[in-house]
Design a protein that fits this description.
This protein has 119 residues and is an alpha+beta fold. The chain folds into two domains: 2-36; 42-114. The protein has helices at residues 2-22, 42-67, and strands at residues 25-26, 35-36, 92-93, 96-98, 103-107, 112-114. The strands form two sheets. Strands 3-4-5-6 form a four-stranded antiparallel beta sheet, covered by helices on one side. A two-stranded antiparallel sheet has the order 1-2. Strand 4 and strand 5 (103-107) form a beta hairpin. The protein is elongated.
Amino acid sequence: MKSLLMVLVTLASISAVVVLVFKDRTLEPGVSQLQTRSIPSPAVDTSACETDLKTIGVVVDAYYAQNGKYPPNLEPSLTAGPTPFLRPQTGLSGDTLTTAAYTITYNPRTGVVDSGGSC
């Protein structure tokens, strides 16, 4: 009887370890291997912020090179006209691009694009 109890305790312990090891894995239909679930992280927002910051900076510089002055604002100066520098997007208004994770501001006097430390 004691050996049966020991076997059951051992099997329960092994099952607990297996559950903990594979709890973040799923088996998708049509996929023969277990895959780790994608969990969003703050690094994703930082990466998007850095990309937007760099893109807006490059666009401001391109506008300056073409017109000899900085654009008066981001929206609509860079999104309108026959050859827009940027596509209109949600959160882009006046001198700022605002998302749920970060805000990028533009200073038309100096041409500086800044995230305020968000990126």
